[in-house]
Amino acid sequence: MKLNKFYFTLFALLVAIPGVSQPLVKQNIKETSDKLIKSALANDLGFERLAHLTDYYGPRLSGSEVLEQGIDWVVQEMEKDGFDRIWTQPVTVPHWVRGKESATLDAPIQKELPMASLGGSVGTPEEGITAEVMLVKSFEDLEKRSAEANGKIVLFNVPFTTYGQTVQYRVNGASAAAKHGAVASALASVASYSMQTPHTGTMSYEEGVKKIPHAALTTEDANLIERFIKRGETVTLTLKMEAKNLPDAQSRNVIAEIKGSEFPEEIIVMGGHIDAWDNGHGAMDDGGGCVAAWEALRLIKETGVRPKRTIRVVLWTNEENGLRGANEYLRWVQEDEKSLDNHILAMESDAGVFDPIGFGFSGSDDAYKILVEIGKMLKSADSGEVRKGGGGADIGPLMRNGVPGMGLNVDGSKYFWFHHTAVDTIDKLNIDDFNECVATMAVFAFAVADLDVRLPR
Ligand SMILES: [Zn+2]
After folding, report:
1. Which comes out higher in pLDDT, residue 337 or 29?
2. Which CATH number is associated with domain 2-95+247-450?
3. Ligand 1 mean position to 60 CA, how many Å?
4. Phi/psi class of residue 389: alpha, beta or left (left: φ > 0; alpha: ψ in -120 to 50)?
5. What distance in angstroms lies between residue 28's CA and the mean position of ligand 1's atoms?
6. In the chain, what are the domain boundaries?
7. How far is the CA of 51 from the centre of ligand 1 (A)?
8. Verdict on whether the full-model pTM lies above 0.70
9. How far is the CA of 125 from the centre of ligand 1 (A)?
10. Is 99-242 assigned to CATH 3.50.30.30?
11. Residue range 301-325: average pLDDT?
12. Which of these, 309, 331, 327, 310, lies nearest to 318 by C-alpha position?
């Protein structure tokens, strides 16, 4: 009798612990996930759509007509996919235009340098700005030699370490230089590798500091200038930039969803950003992330299995130079008191659709454990690893308001070769890697949407 009671207690205890009594990821989810992986890997519609988007609507900078035409095309294509709801959300966006631009080395040799004005920068006078170059290796270096900066073009030649560190010179370089009297500023492109490719990107001005033009040169040319200066040469540069900020323009977030069968108010949101820089085609950044999320939703729809919760794709606008799309999405969500709470998980792909590794997740340990279980279903694609920590710029506003978030982790070895350049084109991507990204997004989104339990916060 005593022994029986012991076994009964043990049994009751095991039943009470989720994950021991019954698997969280049930057989039917596994079967649908297998189907999703197979269909993702055998498909070329997503990659073809990505090629179409980026070939026809490449330089999708906020405020441009081509961005809005690209959005129209996406909506039109989505109509063919039979989603429950597709709509666009108006967003007011900054409107910066590059215009013509050039950088010319005048001394000690004459040379036209490939260059890219940085997003948000003011232009130069029509005749350009010609000045001696003061090359610095860091903000500290600039501070130390502050007296030399007056009337010069300050060139930050800072070796790439991480994007987060090196990008500080792109974002804050102009005001740092202007404070010491520089007439313009430039930097070696924020790039881990270069083939004379200038990398653009956003920059900003500190309030109360004079706005001076700010541009990227290639790492090769920044190093060339450094070698000249080390030999004791005086280096002179002419920058001509038509860049200017126009009044704000209208853009849109694109939203598509399939409604959940049991808890339609609970939402798994995934996506990327539809805008891109104006010098390339935004294939990697971030057409790939957008179309991968869209294709994942289409494949889920195609299985005929309606998940318990709603899965929503959002293609955010204006990530690159304003994040207005992501902020507008949050503002809209917050109009409904319960909606933020009902955002179960936010997923983003904005690191390129290269060979996927898995996801980086920011949320509770309980949720993490469930996601690790889900990741095991992606063993065949080797893309189910869930690491702690991760997210993305467009899901940032949701995450800061309590929504668990995760960003797709991929082989990042080439991302900063192409990032924000003219060579961010479809040929840098590979259909098999892209399809694996689709499979990875589809499986995680579907499984979380179809769990018996709500992913814990
Ligand atoms: Zn991006």
Report:
1. 29
2. 3.40.630.10
3. 12
4. left
5. 35
6. 2-95+247-450, 99-242
7. 17
8. yes
9. 31
10. yes
11. 98
12. 327
